[in-house]
Design goal:
434 Repressor (Amino-terminal Domain), 12 strands, 6-stranded mixed beta sheet, Rossmann fold, elongated, homodimer, alpha/beta, 41% helix, 338 residues, DNA-binding, 3 domains
DNA sequence: GTGAAAGCGCTAACAC
DNA sequence: GTGTTAGCGCTTTCAC
């Protein structure tokens, strides 16, 4: 493998000069710079980033820790993050944890083992042991939490207000005349699920409708789980006229299951999702859903992370971004009003 | 940041001994080993991987170069690769190229700049300039090409036979009595699209049906492109009775568009996809599709890559894995036979 | 069995 | 403006 010394020898300068040509060209005289550049180009030399990183004690790598790395939901967020990372000279590594805490920690450990400089956290667990005696800022590496709120305060984070968002969604269903509204929840350990459930309950309360435990089913953010949950809801003796699924994927699975059971959407059931993934527009009927501002979330993440990467201490900033209800064809008036 | 010297001092041994305890514990006497281990545990020391990599000139990182990193299609392949990588001590980095050649090359360059040891290539371009005078093996880093066949021979690769797969799919539609079969193709520069189109043509030819250019529409692997293509196909005066989309995503978009136009599936149109993504089972109607053996593809990739990582020269091995036609509800007898 | 020392490739402080 | 030198953190000969 060709190194800086080879270039130096070939261009008849010192390694230091080669380094300068590549990093601070202004410090070098025209002729030497040209000579070095010529050799670099001819040989295709690329600095060994291990040497650079070791010397600079900076890797210019970031790691995104994601429960389900390659999910449709995260894609636009990740894309925005990566684009900004690149602009600032960082590369983004994706760490798929498959929901395993051990994997969350092993990716988080990349910072400690100097393979990455900072972390974007999409899980609800903080993959570090924290010492309550000391401040978070001194214990944690550059870090930002997004989408799935972490259960510890003081971590910089970017989210929508899941409670208000769910409240809005349910309000909309209520406005269509629905009185019994089923829920296909995610998994009950997830803070966003809990927040959305709170929003659901508060909307019902405001409307003077009593809460019915039977109408809450766990779909676990899985296609199969949502199908099962749908069957249960649709089989209730006093069945709901609307179903609010806590993800678009689950909503799609719900619609498909209802179709198979012979129901029409939105005539028999209104279905409302969450996330506004790109399929939402292309399923049939197209899906009414709560949109999260993915790109903005990604941008905000980097806005909170970059200062930390530049050495500023972690700030307990919570950025709440606006959600939006996107009304499409999967929701309609309650059957009794048609 | 705590280093090997700190551990050494604390445990009253030399850095060399600490290193031995961590890598070749057998070379160290019981008592020193215990002492070192205790300190390591207490301090939470993790070796700086930059130092290790620099010294060993090996990073234990692999990079997967993917046109659309976070697509539903690639997920199971990536997951299998990552799992095997991990078992062999490697980490997998995902590089999303967003179809840009410059990004393909910049990720490929991670090997040259010693940020990664090998490449898994999911694009159809080889992101290296090759010198025809010399062998591929001496010019290329450890590398394997998958899913989207690269246009240069001699690269180890893993694929299904796209031509035969498309042929089988069309044969199945023909067996249902369809005589006019529309195609929503990917993008025409992609080798897999071309191969699938070949399969389509050969199946028609064998059935004695003449090829009609009008029935081929480009969907470009995009949801919107597929919707547009569907509208064109369904508006033809002599319209097809079946549509073969070259990806499940496009097939889903196609079905949704047909629904919106008032058509029934499979009564008016049969729709057949490609990939067998997890939604295929959950859309309505559930989607008939060509399954690629994702996990097996991932495994085969690592089987071809690991020997190269261990220093063996690149072999021009082409692994062709079996595809499978999965019949579900979106295909049925041609309308004239119902 | 263990420690001292060299060196992986690079950059930056320092001297000239 | 440029070269010399030290050192980032680690592993591995080479002596002992």
């Amino acid at each position: 493998m060709i190194g800086i010394k080879d270039i130096a020898k070939e261009a008849k300068v010192s390694p230091a000069t080669v380094s300068r040509v590549l990093r601070n060209p202004d410090l070098v005289t025209e002729d030497k710079r040209a000579r070095v550049l010529e050799v670099v180009k001819r040989t295709g030399y690329t600095p060994n980033s291990l040497g650079v990183s070791l010397r600079m004690s900076k890797t210019y790598n970031l790691v995104a820790i994601i429960p389900d790395a390659i999910s449709v939901f995260n894609y636009p967020v990740i894309r925005a993050i990566e684009s900004l990372a690149l602009q600032n000279g960082y590369s983004l590594l994706l760490g798929d944890t498959q929901e395993m805490e051990s994997r969350e920690r092993s990716f988080a450990n990349m910072v400690r083992s100097r393979q990455a400089d900072g972390i974007l956290l999409f899980c609800s667990r903080l993959p570090f042991d924290i010492d309550p005696e000391r401040t978070l800022a001194e214990q944690l590496p550059p870090l930002v939490n997004a989408c799935e709120p972490v259960d510890i305060d003081g971590i910089p984070s970017v989210n929508i207000d899941n409670t208000v968002a769910a409240n809005d969604a349910v309000d909309y269903l209520l406005s269509l005349g629905h009185k019994r509204i089923g829920v296909i929840a995610g998994n009950m350990t997830s803070p966003s699920t809990i927040a959305r459930l709170d929003g659901y309950k508060s909307a019902l309360k405001n409307a003077g409708i009593s809460f019915d435990e039977q109408l809450i089913q766990i779909g676990d953010y899985a296609l199969s789980g949502a199908a099962e949950a749908t069957r249960k809801l649709a089989s209730l003796t006093n069945r709901p006229t609307a179903i609010f699924a806590f993800s678009d994927e689950m909503a799609m699975s719900c619609m498909s299951t209802l179709h198979k059971m012979g129901f029409k959407i939105p005539q028999d059931f209104s279905v409302l999702g969450f996330d506004n993934i790109r399929y939402a527009e292309y399923c049939s009927p197209s899906l009414t859903t709560v949109a999260q501002p993915m790109t903005e979330i990604g941008i905000a993440c980097m806005e909170l992370l970059l200062p930390q990467l530049n050495g500023e201490p972690m700030q307990p900033i919570k950025r709440i971004l606006p959600h939006q209800l996107i009304v499409r064809e999967s929701t309609g008036l309650a059957p009794q009003l048609i």
